[in-house]
């Protein structure tokens, strides 16, 4: 595990974006695992800048997103499909048929989970981008006595609902379920990039990276992976 701390979020975002650009330059057909939420927005902005300056093309890559809410249409502004189009996909030359997210509107959610796992198995992820929840969740793999290896439907914990409520008009509108890649799928990525920003992530980062490996903190399972790159601003890395 490599831990890098940055004096500013701008420097962190620049480094992370450059890492993805270098990956694509080395392997134009790379498969990237992508995340949503506030953490990767600056990274995506820097990636778009690189594309617009002609430094990189995304035309041959494939992407898989970690998760999607159950019951939100892709056109809904709070869906992760909309988020990705708004922050990244709509600004680069990635073909739409090479950008994959779980289908939260599927009539058979179990079949959708199996479909997504089959695609992941056929096209292993080269670099998986992760944020971390305040309770240690990665993707929507919430703390529990047991964790799922593959893609599955999950009921969101109250602390996760509260954290996501800021994106919705009210708590009642926050979806209660999501489809998420499982921890087993995440750990199959060749490289995992874990990003933490802000003082509110300092304690959980310390717990995840130096505490016991336990399903009570899903991110702690990243300690078992051979190639994890942790990128932190000074506030998130204050205890490390």
UniProtKB/TrEMBL annotation:
Pfam families noted in UniProt: Glucosamine_iso
Top EC class of this enzyme: hydrolase
EC annotation from Swiss-Prot or TrEMBL: 3.5.99.6
Gene3D superfamilies: 3.40.50.1360
Catalytic residues, chain numbering: 67 (proton acceptor), 135 (for ring-opening step), 137 (proton acceptor), 142 (for ring-opening step)
SUPFAM superfamilies referenced in this protein's UniProt entry, alphabetically: NagB/RpiA/CoA transferase-like
Organism: Paenibacillus mendelii
Domain of life: Bacteria
PANTHER family: GLUCOSAMINE-6-PHOSPHATE ISOMERASE
Family: Belongs to the glucosamine/galactosamine-6-phosphate isomerase family. NagB subfamily.
Pathway it works in: Amino-sugar metabolism; N-acetylneuraminate degradation; D-fructose 6-phosphate from N-acetylneuraminate: step 5/5
NCBIfam families the UniProt entry points to: nagB
InterPro entries referenced in this protein's UniProt entry, alphabetically: Glc/Gal-6P_isomerase (IPR006148), Glucosamine6P_isomerase (IPR004547), NagB/RpiA_transferase-like (IPR037171)
Positions of the Glucosamine/galactosamine-6-phosphate isomerase domain: 17-227
The protein's role, per its UniProt record: Catalyzes the reversible isomerization-deamination of glucosamine 6-phosphate (GlcN6P) to form fructose 6-phosphate (Fru6P) and ammonium ion.
Identification of the protein by name: Glucosamine-6-phosphate deaminase
Catalytic activity from the UniProt record: alpha-D-glucosamine 6-phosphate + H2O = beta-D-fructose 6-phosphate + NH4(+)
Listed CDD domains: GlcN6P_deaminase
Sample GO molecular function, one term: glucosamine-6-phosphate deaminase activity
Alphabetic keyword roster: Carbohydrate metabolism, Hydrolase
